[in-house]
Amino acid sequence: MSSFLQNYFVSFIAGLLNHQPLAWILYGIISGAVILGVLSAYGALAVYAERKIMAFMQCRLGPMEVGPEIELRIAGMKILPKGWYGLGVLIADGIKLLGKEDTVPAKADSLIFKLAPAIVFAATITSFVVIPFAPFFTPADIDAGILVILAASSIVAVGIVMGGYASNNKWSLYGAIRSVAQVVSYEVPMGLALLSVVMTTGSLALADIADNQSGWAWNWHAFSNVWLFIAAIIYIISSLAETNRTPFDIPEAEAELVAGYHTEYSGMRFALFMFAEYINMLLVSLIASVFFFGGYYSGIQWLDRYYFLGPFVLGAKALLLVIIMIWLRWTLPRFRVDQLMTLCWKAMLPLSIIAFVGAAAALFQTSLVFAIFWRFCILILLALFAFEVAKGIRTKSISRKATE
Amino acid sequence: MNMQARPIVKEMFESVGWLVNILVTSVQGMLITGKYFVRPNEIVTVRYPREKLNVPENFRGRLLNDPERCISCELCARACPTKCITVKHEMGADKKRILTEYSLDMTACLFCGLCTEACPETTKNAKGKKCLIFVNDYEYSSDSKEQIKYYFKQTEDGLARKRKDAEERVKKAAEAKKKSEEAKSAAAAIASTKINIAEESK
Amino acid sequence: MTVHGEELVINMGPQHPSTHGVLRLLLKTDGEVVGEALPQIGYLHRCFEKSAERVSWNGVVPYTDRMDYVAAISNEWSFVLAAEKLGNATVPERGEYCRVISAELQRIASHLVAFGTFGIDMGAFTPFLHAFRDREKILDILEMMSGARLLYHYIRIGGVMSDCDSKICEMIKLFIKDMRTRLPEYHQLLSYNRIFIERTANVGIITREQAINYNITGPNLRATGMEWDLRKCDPYSIYDRFEFKIAVGTCEHGVSGDSWNRYMVRLIEIEESLKILEQAVEQIPAGPISAAIKVFKPAPGEIYARTEGARGEIGFYVISDGDLKPFRVKAKSPSFCALSGFHEYSRNLMIADLVALLGSIDIVLGEVDR
Fold this sequence. Notes:
Helices cover 68% and strands 3% of the residues of chain A. Chain A has helices at 4-17, 20-57, 89-99, 110-126, 145-166, 170-201, 206-211, 221-224, 226-242, 254-257, 267-292, 310-329, 337-364, 368-403; strands at residues 69-74, 77-84.
């Protein structure tokens, strides 16, 4: 059902070519090319966005010099004043990375060293085929799509280990070891969080999960049920660890391990690692959107039937999460490796089990009263959280006055 | 079993509280970074080649010597801790020094300002500036060491003029000496005549 | 059962992001745990003490700037104090105030660098640039006062280089006001962040006994709860006129002498320095800023003078043989002392903790190697 569009497309080409397997191959090439193209554009823009967001948070301007002078006017109104916005760095960075010497350390395991970035990149990009971008459109509509995602994200860790091990650098080795420990641990709460949704929906296919959240925004999994809300938070935290972003960036902890597993990489090989990181960010954000935040549904029931909005809605949600990840990165310090494990095994795992069991229990309570009650719980949780945040800020200012 | 289970549950609750605390403080920190993100007027970047910071009057940017006014006293060279100043001079006709070349090795300069302070007050020009001063120029980095060794040479004209001046001064001095000697001898003559008159009157 | 594999010896530095310069640490690690960390110093040795013997008394002062380049004025003051004691020079009242103002500004600037770089060590990049944004204002003020931005050569034998006039005083008042709004932000952004507390509290503890045994001074000593500040305990210049508290470790998180307390002492000291600045700007009298000394030529003798720098007690042991040049200059630098016991208090830390320890003792390699 959900692959309706895809089947239509394939049968259309098959009709033209009168050859069914060729039509499938063509379809694969076209959808792959579209995804790769979009991802490349996203990767470059994400790096730019990260640099700009970081700069503004730090009272700086960020990249400004490269590129043409831009003045953005919409209907005569000045949106952006005339000036350089440094958009040229997107191209300049690319050229720089391409032009750099491709070095392999003398005593490195050359084959594995060269293979590692390719594996990381390929594994990251594989998962995109199972993402439902719009109703009736999933590039590869696999019934067990979530398993593909979990499997592929584990392979990323393998690539990182290969890179770190083959570099013949002690710091890289540390990065690789840390990466394995981290990814393996965080897959458990992450898997449980996703499993709660799978259980609620009753399907492993991502399109079915997304379709389960049509209608108003409170139908989204994260807001439909307090247990799934907790699961959503757990997933977002674990996904930070999965993508090696701050506060879980210990595999590439700059202050400790120089650059971790990619210390010895340069040029395009390094670019592939970095590219994979940014794409991975988008991937986990897309998955979070699909599983918890309504997927391609905008949360407004009246807009649901405009299917063409699907990719844009999904993209907007995912990009918002990506921006939050960037925001977190430039705010937080990083954990120590043992604290990371403590957080995972002692806090996130029990919480995800509770969320899982709670979600299971909630399946039996389908009456309207309970539906409202669970949503009310989310509101209370959020209110308590906001209260805690505000209280913390107030006590700090009071203690400051006291010391003065 | 029960004895063991309780601490584990307790620890679990503590850990979850810990997680919540992490989230709360993280959001507090995000509020700060978010605040600056939406406030473009807080940006402090100065886009250097396009904009420049104002440097104060007394900024120690680069040493400049005026060979015209320099008297080659070498006080600066003596005050310099790194000995980066060398003064070449010749003797004028009046045994006063005339600067020929004043070289500054800025690769060794500490920018301490001891030399400019040692520079004597007599070299001040109409604006009250000494001959060795720090100027606000700070854009003189170069890709070779030779380029930041500065040589302040006396111009040919200046040298010729100064030599002439010295000679003139010698002449003048000689004339003045002559005059004063004449005056002295005249005065002596007058005095002696006075004495004679006085003696005679006795 | 514990499994002990082969020790892995790693070189941390001299080119490493978190060694704050060119320090080299030889780590003997077992997994993430560092069994032993041996500092190897000397990469920035510039023969300060020997150089000082061949330049005039005034000429040594700019060399002292280069010792602790993050807090240059503290070094100048210490050497100038020694020279003045030897030569019986008196400093005019206004000169003393100018010195206090510049030194306290410098202390704040130095602590801001310590705060920012410690943030980077812990993985938070933004506090670093926020700190540098505020430090820039101090540098502007000091630039107005002395004409330089980093190595000031502001304090001279007999007084100071130039006046701290009313315009600069106004700038300082503005800065004090501004800084007081920034400090709570720093606390909210970094100090009380739970991840930061987890990373630093109870980590890299230097006990009071260790601190005293290794002659650690300054914020690192005060973090252990010891109220030892030369500005109060052995007042020099005019510090007895100002009201301020000795910042000691609060133990709000962690135990005394750990990284968090060392970090916090610096932030509290910024507040206290602001208080001193406020008073000094109010009280500053009119008058000359420098005693007129034509040729400084102290009588033969020897002396040890010390001041409270940003990193602790900066002392100069100076011998004069009645010449225009000092006969011998020996510098006591707090960073060197802080690093001398490093092998002891870095035992059995994790690599990440080692970075926290190194960042929180706030060493400047220029001062360690001299």
